[in-house]
Amino acid sequence: STFLFPISIFASAGWFVTSAVCLWPLSLGMYALVPVVKRLQGRTVEKHYAVTATLSIIIAANHEQIGAMLVGFLGCIILYFLWKKESPGALVFVFFVISALLLCYSLLAESNALRETAEIRNSYPIFYAQSTLERLFNGFLATALYLLSPETILIQVMCIVLAAVVAQKYSDPLIRIVGSIPALYFFLFGTLRDWTLTLFPALQQFYVGTIDQMSLYNPDVLVSCAVTLFVYLLIGVILIFTMPTRPAGCLMAITWAGGLATRLVIGLSPTLYASTSRTFFITLACILAILCVLIGEYERNCGSRTPLYLFILMSVGMWLYQFYIV
């Protein structure tokens, strides 16, 4: 039914449902990666998966953000196989080429130029005065502030479960403390942000949302951004060493990096003023996927096969996911 849906209708969706429209290419893009995951696991990719995934990725990559995510993800997969001196398979190369070509086509489309001349000059003229570094900083700042928002429950739950899995797998107290740092960071500067900054004013230099730090050329920005980047990198490293196998850990780290990158690059968009909240659905989807994998890993280490916790988590997570989008 997805392939038969008239794609042209997407263009007439309107302002308030553009985020919901993005769910189509996102779901197709995730389905297209099923053969890639099977290839990582060393399993055979059935012909029907290869055919339907190829059709899916053609539709998915037409969406700029999804196309960028697919190019980055597939590029990392290819580099991983080359690092292991193995062939990723013809299908992975085909997917990468299709995604790259369609992404370039979307970026060079005439509609982007028309939108630039019709809207940006009147609504976002400062875009032309900013350097690439300043635009990336805007994307990074928006991403960091969104993840630290008390309403972004999924990232907080993910870090708590991540700390639980680390404590379950490692008995060394130092490793357990390191595994708890992301949860502590999002708890202090997210859930208890107002109390933390009121009771401990000195910690404001570590929070990226302080008003007087909203400038790339403010020296205090280096401290807060360095702390935030350290936490993000730490989450990726913990995911790599927490999963039962290295490929699985790398896949989770790539998912985490992809979720951040798809939101970060929106700073390069000349329609940032209108699109600032439209790519968070990809970040939330990546966080939800990692969270479910961590819950499954925790259950596996406990020796329990009951899917009850995972089912409840998926239900609550998908409800929150749809709530944020709507």
How would you characterize the overall build of this protein?
This protein has 16 helices and no strands. The chain is an all-alpha fold and 326 residues long.
Features:
326 residues, single chain, mainly alpha
Instruction: Give the rounded overall mean pLDDT.
Output: 77
Helix content: over 70%
The amount of beta strand, in percent, is under 5%
Give the SSE order as H and E letters. HHHHHHHHHHHHHHHH
Q: Nutshell version of this structure?
A:
It is built from 16 helices and no strands. With 326 residues, it is mainly alpha-helical.
List the helices and strands and how they pair.
Layout: H1 18-21, H2 23-32, H3 34-40, H4 47-60, H5 64-83, H6 90-107, H7 110-123, H8 132-147, H9 153-169, H10 173-191, H11 193-199, H12 219-242, H13 246-264, H14 272-275, H15 280-302, H16 308-325
Helix pairs in contact: 2-4, 4-6, 5-6, 5-13, 9-10, 9-12, 9-15, 10-11, 10-12, 12-13, 13-15, 15-16
